[in-house]
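Worked example 3 (structure in, sequence out).
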């Protein structure tokens, strides 16, 4: 296994542990701490994972900062997501009505929804309380 492959494996493991989060490359590098990966290696590997469809690049509304969300797990590919503007936490919509919503959109507009890439933005319960 080559050096960059070890880095990518460590990056994927880190992203799997934080798959419900939207993270910057700096945050990801910090989370990988013990693996000692450079910021440039994080960006390079994130780009490769993005090309493979495992990572989604996101620019949060109102900012120019780039964030990433891991969508490589099967769970992420089959669910709509809710994302909090304030804390950045991402939640899977596991509600049965989600399927009805997607089917309704497809029937009404003849639009094929990519559930794994679809995000509804708002404010989570914890942030509303604070």
């Amino acid at each position: 296994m080559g050096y960059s492959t070890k880095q990518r494996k460590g990056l994927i493991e880190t992203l799997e542990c934080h798959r419900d989060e939207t993270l910057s490359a700096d945050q990801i590098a910090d989370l990988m701490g013990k693996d000692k990966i450079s910021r440039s290696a994080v960006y390079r590997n994130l780009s490769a994972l993005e090309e493979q469809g495992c990572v989604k690049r996101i620019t949060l509304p109102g900012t120019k900062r780039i964030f990433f969300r891991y969508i490589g797990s099967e769970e992420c590919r089959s669910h709509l997501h809710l994302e909090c503007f304030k804390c950045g936490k991402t939640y899977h919509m596991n509600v049965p009505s989600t399927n009805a919503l997607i089917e309704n959109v497809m029937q009404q507009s003849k639009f094929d929804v990519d559930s794994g890439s679809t995000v509804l933005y708002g404010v989570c319960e914890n942030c509303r309380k604070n």
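Notes: The radius of gyration is 16 Å. Helices lie at 3-17, 25-31, 39-51, 74-77, 97-109, 125-129.
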